[in-house]
């Protein structure tokens, strides 16, 4: 297990260095930070002085080394648009995005797994057909359209939920959350549902397909021949083996929820990292864009590592194979 973790960490380091290089190239080829900071009216002397202060007069490798060292400490310089430390901006926005993504992921799992099992066990029934039809709509409709429809129905016509913003939040040290206030929960409902629809439909269809495949396997037939009840066969044997690919998809989709919540945050004006990134792109705020790219890559790397470790918990066959390979 230790060798496995060390190998994964080495791979993660290579990935992060590659992402850091791509983020660093943004500074080289997308706009001139000196021009953005000083404007058109600055003199040549002022520009030269700022280049020296920022280290832009040094060689490419030296600049990249400084960038990696600073990025490892969470420092990406000043936002060209707001004039504040990028790390402070990310720290302000990250709780909103993480909260939205986690609630959306929990919704997708809490509904997707049981509905997928139901669609597999009741295949051909009217209820299962309805579930599969709705799941097809979920994977087909674009996220922004789902968000607009939810706003139209539940915010404009029914007035049940607010249509934008995060609502009232509570500060817990350096962390902010809207889960502890009624207003914050009301603001969270529509964006969380919007963000979860695609993931829910994907998990539902995956669980159904894997469940049907597992139910056709030989060991399930053997379990039935032993006289085990349907409940024991379905939930004690079939579902457990179905969860292995579900863990993979769920882990990767959690990273996708955090990375690609941009559309949902834009539709609902949710003050998270996605909205911050959109504003950074509009104003060519390179430090914010680079920080966002590195943070999302780090999240994906960590999630992949956790998913690989969960394999050993869920699937005992992997532990047996590892032990056999060691001998």
From TrEMBL:
Main location: membrane
GO cellular component: plasma membrane
Compartments where located: Cell membrane
Record domain ABC transmembrane type-1: where: 94-311
TM annotation in the entry: 12-30, 102-121, 133-156, 188-207, 243-270, 290-314
Membrane topology category: Multi-pass membrane protein
Keyword Transcription regulation: no
Domain of life: Bacteria
Gene Ontology BP terms: transmembrane transport
Keywords: Cell membrane, Membrane, Transmembrane, Transmembrane helix, Transport
Sequence similarity: Belongs to the binding-protein-dependent transport system permease family.
Protein name (database record): Peptide/nickel transport system permease protein
Organism of provenance: Rubrivivax gelatinosus (Rhodocyclus gelatinosus)
């Amino acid at each position: 297990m230790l060798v496995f973790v060390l190998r994964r960490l080495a791979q993660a380091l290579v990935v992060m260095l590659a992402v850091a290089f791509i983020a660093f190239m943004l500074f080289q080829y997308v706009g001139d930070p000196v021009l953005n900071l000083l404007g058109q009216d600055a003199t040549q002397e002022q520009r030269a002085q700022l280049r020296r202060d920022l280290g832009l007069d040094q060689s490419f490798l030296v600049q990249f080394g400084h960038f990696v060292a600073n990025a490892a400490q969470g420092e990406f310089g000043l936002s060209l648009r707001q004039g504040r430390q990028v790390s402070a901006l990310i720290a302000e926005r990250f709780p909103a995005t993480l909260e939205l993504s986690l609630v959306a992921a929990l919704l997708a799992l809490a509904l997707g797994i049981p509905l997928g099992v139901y669609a597999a066990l009741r295949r051909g029934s009217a209820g299962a057909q309805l579930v599969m039809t709705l799941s097809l709509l979920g994977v087909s409709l674009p996220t922004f359209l789902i968000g607009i429809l939810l706003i139209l129905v539940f915010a404009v016509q029914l007035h049940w939920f607010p249509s934008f913003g995060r609502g009232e939040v509570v500060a817990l040290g350096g962390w902010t959350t809207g889960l502890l206030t009624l207003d914050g929960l009301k603001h969270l409902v529509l964006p969380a549902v919007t963000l979860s629809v695609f993931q829910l439909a994907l998990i539902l269809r995956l669980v159904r397909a894997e469940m049907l495949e597992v139910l056709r396997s030989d060991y399930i037939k053997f379990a039935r021949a032993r006289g085990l009840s349907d409940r024991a066969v379905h939930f004690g044997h079939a579902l457990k083996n179905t969860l292995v690919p579900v863990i993979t998809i769920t882990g990767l989709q959690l990273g996708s929820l955090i990375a690609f919540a941009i559309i949902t945050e834009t539709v609902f004006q949710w003050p998270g990292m996605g909205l911050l990134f959109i504003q950074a792109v509009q104003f060519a705020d390179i430090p914010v864009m680079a920080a966002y790219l590195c943070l999302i890559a780090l999240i994906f790397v960590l999630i992949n590592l956790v998913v690989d470790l969960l394999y050993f918990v869920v699937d005992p066959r992997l532990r047996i194979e590892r032990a056999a390979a060691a001998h």
